Amino acid sequence: MSDIIQLLPDAVANQIAAGEVVQRPASAVKELIENAIDAGAGKIQLIVKDAGKSLIQVIDDGCGMSLTDARMCFERHATSKIRKADDLFAIRTMGFRGEAMASIAAIAQVEMKTRRHEDELGTCIFIEGSEVISQEACQANTGTSISVKNLFYNTPARRNFLKSNPVEMRHIIDEFQRVALANPQIFFTLHHDGQEVYHLPGAALKQRIVHLFGNNYNQRLVPVEEDTTIINLRGFVGKPEFARKTRGEQFFFVNYRFIRDAYLNHAVLTAFEELLPDDSYPFYVLFIDIDPSKIDINVHPTKTEIKYQDEKAIYAIIRSAVKRSLGRYNITPSLDFDQENSIEHLITPKPFEEIVAPTISFNPNFNPFATEKRPEREHPFLKDNGNYKNDPIPKNWDTLYEISKKESNLQHEMHEEKRIAVDDQEVSKSSERQLFQIHNRFILSQIKSGFMLIGQQAAHERILYERFLQQQQNHSGVSQQSLFPQSVTLNGSDFELLKELLPDIKALGFDIREFGKNTVVVEGIPAELSNVDEHELLEHLLEGFKNNMAILKLDKRDNLARSLARNAAIKTGTKLSLEEMNQLIDQLFACQTPNQALNGKPVISTFTMTELLERFEK
């Protein structure tokens, strides 16, 4: 029997490695930008077309490469970062394995131009599917420019697994944001299909956060800083009132490398105990500086997981530092009875000789029991051209009731309602119902066999959800035009998501159009919504969509209808009139599934007379 174990050809090995390193265009963006940072670049430009499927180009002004290095960088395990195994425990660079460029070149058409500062001519290399097509001297700017074209052109199966352009662009923006946050001193730009998405000049960390996420973040940040013998911690956390319902704005960096760590994330959440609503997540950007010998970053292909020697100590430091920062900036309640500084500034000091003792004066002839003719109170609704009428009751007042009786009779004749069956219990029509609101949370309605309790928020969510779902299917959403159109600026990731959802959002009744960089103009909102802030409405709609997408894996239309229904429904604690309660019940029992809330729990609970008698009778 012949031997069966063989070495794989380099082209096949490179494609296998590419499956680990380059899973989508965002993976290639991350690797190329990190190489530019390791090259000492002060300015990095990222240019993408078709969300990276057609072109990913990274231009930097770093150290550049020699002719030999330019060719060697495309070989597997060729790296300038380490020389021996012990160097793995002293790594402070982004890359070190030497697989990224080889993996990218295996599944794309790559053109690289590079020149060192001391060289007069640069080098131009063109590689296609791991095969070097050409290599020659050329004119080039100082630094390196790498163009990755037609990603996965020779692996069509992998290309077919890519998502739509807006989805892939959101992943690219996520990677870009992480690298830009970790390196605020570097100038970054991002262009997509000829439009500038980000223009980030070198600045302090707080300015970089504001440039990335919007000007409204300037007032949301609380600084965190702690120096210990184990780690040095610095960064910012968001104020509790601005916490969101979805993860995604939590950033941990260890030695300026973005990581995902549920254990350390729990440390931050613990520091926010009793300050956050349920299922809310705070914003934070935290940097951990630690001795590289005390961590191991070579445990995952994407290098986003790290092993620590002393996890518990790091957990405790992060928790206490964040908690102290929240208390220091008066975010958490404190038992401090000292006078506030702001009150001291309101007191103007005077010379001692100018201070006059207070005096008391009184009228000795004052008689509290003496009667005094006081002017009568004015009642505007009793006036008649400035004169008071002796008789405030008008003549023929009883005719007013006859009109109201006629109107009510006509109304009852026009709206003849049927009895509705729920769980074999008949619900009376509106005119016969006896309704009560309990703690502005539940509606109690008497039925033939007992009574039922209806959760008002869950019921309204179910009504709106089915209505919005039908509007999307029929494209029948009614828009209420705004008197003054509002411009709404979103962060890059949310803007790309909104562009993807725009046709379905318009079907709900929104009238939205793009208006420049990361900005839209809201000219109308669904007629079911009123007295809402357009910016908050869009933010909450997108937040709900992302949260549902992460947890429930719903399709776009169902997800949008669910998110908008939860944001637009009347909330627990809202007082309802009798007419509003009747209308809510009528609309609920007109739904296809009236007794199922959006979270799967029941909307209605019925209590029979038998159950009540068992409780009160022996």
TrEMBL record:
Keyword Transmembrane helix in annotation? no
Q: What family does the entry list?
A: Belongs to the DNA mismatch repair MutL/HexB family.
| Role description | This protein is involved in the repair of mismatches in DNA. It is required for dam-dependent methyl-directed DNA mismatch repair. May act as a 'molecular matchmaker', a protein that promotes the formation of a stable complex between two or more DNA-binding proteins in an ATP-dependent manner without itself being part of a final effector complex.
Record SUPFAM superfamilies: ATPase domain of HSP90 chaperone/DNA topoisomerase II/histidine kinase, DNA mismatch repair protein MutL, Ribosomal protein S5 domain 2-like
Gene field: mutL
Q: Which Pfam families match?
A: DNA_mis_repair, HATPase_c_3, MutL_C
Span of domain MutL C-terminal dimerisation: 434-576
State the name under which the record lists this protein.
DNA mismatch repair protein MutL
**Origin, by domain of life?**
Bacteria
Q: Which organism is it from?
A: Mucilaginibacter pocheonensis
Output the InterPro entries linked to this UniProt entry. Answer: DNA_mismatch_repair_MutL (IPR020667), DNA_mismatch_S5_2-like (IPR013507), HATPase_C_sf (IPR036890), MutL/Mlh/PMS (IPR002099), MutL/Mlh/Pms-like (IPR038973), MutL_C (IPR014790), MutL_C_dimsub (IPR042120), MutL_C_regsub (IPR042121)
Query: Which positions fall inside the DNA mismatch repair protein S5 domain?
Result: 209-327
This protein's UniProt keywords: DNA damage, DNA repair
Query: Does this entry carry the keyword Ribonucleoprotein?
Result: no
Show the HAMAP family listed in the entry: DNA_mis_repair (MF_00149)
